[in-house]
Amino acid sequence: MAQVTHIFNVDTTLNREFPLYLSPVPAGFPSAADDYLDRKIDLNEHLIKRPAATFFVKVKGDSMVGAGIYSGDMLIVDRSQDPKNGSMVVAILNGEFTVKRLNKKDGKIFLLAENPNYKPIEIISGMDFEVWGVVLHSIRSF
Amino acid sequence: MKFGVWFCILSVPFNMSKLFALLDCNNFFVSCERVFNPSLRHKPVVVLSNNDGCVIARSNEAKALGVPMGAPFFKCKELLQRHRVAVYSANFPLYGDLSGRVMQTASEFTPELEIYSIDEAFLHLDNMPEPYEYVKSARETIRRHTGMPVSIGVAATKTLAKAANHIAKKHSTDGIFCLQDQETIDRWLRETPVEGIWGIGYNKGDFLKRQGVLTALQLKEMPDAWIKQNLSIGSLKTVWELRGIPCLESQDNAIDKRAITTSRTFAKEVTSLEELSEPIAAYIANASEKLRSQQSVCGYVQVYLTTNRFKRERYYANAAGIDLTPPTAYTPDLIAIAQKLVKSIYKPGYGYKKAGVVLSNLQPQSTVQDFLFEPTYDSSRRQKLMDIMDHWNNRRNTAKVFLAAEGMGQDWYNEAYKSKRFTTRWDELLEINI
After folding, report:
1. Check: complex ipTM more than 0.90
2. In the sheet where B150-155 sits, what is the strand order?
3. What is the count of residue pairs from A and B with beta carbons less than 8 Å apart?
4. pLDDT per residue as tens digits for the range A4-34
5. Which neighbouring-strand residues pair with B261?
6. Are B393 and A130 an interchain contact pair (Cβ–Cβ within 8 Å)?
C-alpha cells in the first residue's frame, strides 16, 4: 500500500528558470525576437497552480505502481482541487495518510489501489475518512 | 487630540458603510501540527515554546482538561502525561509557512488584508451586503486549501469584529458570527465585563471598575470628555468603535505576545530590490524596538512581499523566514537577516505593493542571557548569516541551518518530541504505520 513518508512545504522561492531561445543569437545587433530572451520557463508555474494550497509529499510502497507511482516518488498535491471520480488523492483513513485512486460507484466510495495485490477499500460509515488533497503530478528521479 | 477623532469621522464618506471581518486561526500552532498529523485530531495536544518550555498553544481537548495557557512544562507535565496529551515543541518554520498560506488565501477575499499577527487578519469588506455567506465561503476555502480551521467575526468596527470573533469561537456552531444589529450589539456589550473589550485590558479595566464602569455597555455610554480625562485618546477610539464608528488604524492595539508584525502598503508600486530593502529595514527597526520594549527576543523572523493582486497577470507573493539561534532583539542582526530573506524571495519585473516583517517565537530576554555571553555567539551568528543564502538556494543546506540550531543544548526535549520538524528536514521522517 502506498504510504506517505514525508511531507514538504512548497518552496516557491526556488525557481529553476531556463532561458527560452526563440531565435538563434548571432553576434551583432539584436533582432526584435530577442525580446523574448527575458522569458523563462518556470517549472513552478507549470506544475503549481495554487502555491498556497500546494504541498509536496513523498510516498513509499507499491500499491500504486499501476498508476506509475513508485516507492520514493514525490507527489505534488493540490488541496484546492475538487476530488472527482477517478482522481488520484491523498486521503486520511482512520487517522492515517494514504494515496489511492478515488472511485465513486452506485453511491458508494472506494479507494482503489493500482496493484492487483491490493484490494479496494470501501468507505463505510464509522470510518474516519477525508480527502486531504488531489495529486496533480508525480516526480520520479532516475 | 481632538483632531484625531474628527479625522475618523471625516474619513468615512456618508455613502460608504465600513465593514471588517476578523479572521483568527483556531488554536493555530496545534492546528498546524494537525494538518500534517491527522492522528492528533480530536485528541488533546499542546505546543511548548522553544526555550523555557511553557505551554503556548492548546487544543480544545487540552483546554477542557484544564491545562493552563502559559504554564511551565515541568509544572503540568504530570497532568499532560496522565491524560496522554500529545506534546510538541514549537516548529516556527512550519507555523510561519502555514500562516503565509492562510493569509495568501484570505487575501483573495478582500481588497485589503491587514495581517495583524501570525494567526489573525482583518479583511476589509466595505459595503458588503451579505457578509455571512461571503465569509462562510472564505472560511471553507481557507480550510480546504490550507487545512487551517478559522473563526471569523464581522462588524462595523475592528473592536466589534474582535468581539464578534470571540462570540464565533465560543458560541457559534459554524465558526462565524456577524455582530451587526444594534440590539445584539448592546445585549453583548451588557454581558461583557469592561476588561473583556479589546484595547481596554486589565489595568484600565481595574480602574474603570473602581469608577463603577463594570460592563462594556456602560463604557460605551460614558461621555467622551470623561474618557479623555481619565483614560487616553486610545481608549476614546475604543469607545467610539463600540459605538460603531471605525477609528482604529492598522497598527493600533497591536500587542501580540507571540508575534510582532509590521507591514505597509506602498503608495506607489516598488520594483527594485534596493527600494524594498529600505522599508524592510525600517519595519525591522520598528518591530525590534517593540520587541525590546517588552523585554523580549525573537526566535524566528519572516519577511513577505506581495504585488498588487488586482493585476492578475503579474501577481506574485512570497514569504521567507528563518529560525534564530540564539534568539535576538538586536536590530543590526535582524536587519541583515531580513535583507538576505527579502533578497531570496525578490523577483525582478514585478511591481510590489506591500511588504512586511513578522518577528515570532517571542521569549523573555531573561531566558537567553546565557546565550548572549557564549563565546560562540558571534561566530554562530556569522555562520547563520551565510547559511541563509544557502538555505534558499540549496535545500540540503536547510538541514544544516536547523542542525546548528538544534545543537544548542535543547537535546532534552528533542528526544522526547522528535517528530516536530517532519516538514522541513530530510532526516526527521514522518513514520506512518498502516
Report:
1. no
2. B113-117, B120-124, B20-25, B150-155, B176-178
3. 73
4. 666 655 555 544 444 444 444 444 454 555 4
5. B358
6. no
